[in-house]
Amino acid sequence: MAEPGAPLLAAAGVSLRFGGVRALTDVAFQVNAGEIFSIIGPNGAGKTSMVNCASGRYRPTEGRIHFDGADITRLPTRKRAAIGIGRTFQNLALFGHMSVLDNIMVGRHHLLNRGFLPGMLYWFGGAQREEIAHRREVEEIIDFLEIQHVRKATAGTLSYGLRKRVELARAIALRPKLILLDEPMAGMNLEEKEDMARFILDLNEEWGMTVLMIEHDMGVVMDISHRVMVLDFGRKIAEGTPEAVLADPHVRRAYLGEADEVVNDPEEALAP
């Protein structure tokens, strides 16, 4: 496993085309173990396409992706989950008819070790003990995200903010080394955003998870990110600390659309 500060995820020369449309062009970056790395950019900049390449949902047209030192460019999504890459989606992907508890248990599925025979002998073999152990893990996650009061509720009946927490819980249940968060605060009110930011910080600092996040709320991005990459029309135009990115004239032009615009407060200019 990558040591803190060493590259955990690395993309080199990643390009992605859909027919004649270029979604990404020669993008290179690395996410270091133990950090919160954010990708920002205007709508249509290629942010979700880049995360989809990292998770295996898309396969790059060109370039390579490495995770924890291994080339995973052609590795299927399910195998990336098995080696420690979890994710949430911009559009919620919960099982609306299932309970919160069962939705989170889905995230533990690949960790189940029992085979056919122990499954058939559930009450006599180790499968029952294994499931109990997994449920303890899930209950820990439920407590962490403060959703105890809805643990038995049907996921589809919850408010949007709570469903976002359940989606995060399911991704955490994988116990990933790297968690990919696609707009985790989209559609939330101020209080919900503050709670989500706190959860992400705690995941990083207390649970030791490396975070790759797409987020439009620039205040949150600048407050909790260690480093930030900016995409525009599928190309990387900046990367660095939040302060350096805020001060970059190329970034301001990408957001403002005017090369000669004078910006007194870069953070205000980058607000959605």
Automatic annotation (TrEMBL):
Keywords: ATP-binding, Nucleotide-binding, Transport
Entry protein name: ABC transporter ATP-binding protein
SMART domains linked to this entry: AAA
Molecular function terms from GO: ATP binding
Domain ABC transporter: 9-258
Organism for this UniProt entry: Paeniroseomonas aquatica
Keyword presence, Transport: yes
